[in-house]
Here is the input.
Amino acid sequence: MARELLDQGATVLIIGRKQEGLDSAAASLGPRCVARLCHTADEKRATEVIEDLITSHGRVDYLVNNAAANPQWGPTIGVDAGMAAKLAEVDLWAPLLWTKLTHQVWMGANGGSVVNIASVGGLSPSPNTGYYNSVKVGLAFLTKQLSAELAPRVRVNAVAPGFIDTDMARHMPPEQRAALLRQIPMGRLGLPADIAAATSFLLSDHAGWITGHLLAVDGGMLNARAFDPAVGPV
Here is the structure.
């Protein structure tokens, strides 16, 4: 996503918790990428980062809330307080925090566009990630709520990725990967570039009359779950 926005002419600020990864990413992205160490849910540090951005660059027109955590794997009934707090902090509170901060320092007066990265997991029940999915439902609703509250100056939308071909997916057992691909009408896993293109579109003036929208980018998987080729639509 950072590379896509850089290609569109933006200066991009990326944040992360690990300096080595940030430095590597910034070096690969070039001089118009600014990297800052920050835990996304740390309000004090986030405020410093945003204020520094305004001081150095004078504006903040776009925000992508992409950071997420998922310490849960297994039945939802097994979620403990620590898991629940971590998920709510990173996946729900942090997007609100960064939207609030950018609204306060620039977007509220000058306009802007926000995209939250949700998940197709929040659109249909699935095994092992039920609480994560529930929090992503909350993020989808937060998107709609903020879009109503911050209009007309600020647009707020969300992208719901399906299964993306990342390192996590590459470690999937071959039989599990094959079974997953059979559920995707487009016949392949998504690419990071697929999510980047959707995000860039929603941020841009091309989507200037779109707000409060959740765009599923999943190769048609959700739609196909309601369709059995043997019996037709259900």
User: Anything to note?
Assistant: The chain has a mean pLDDT of 92.
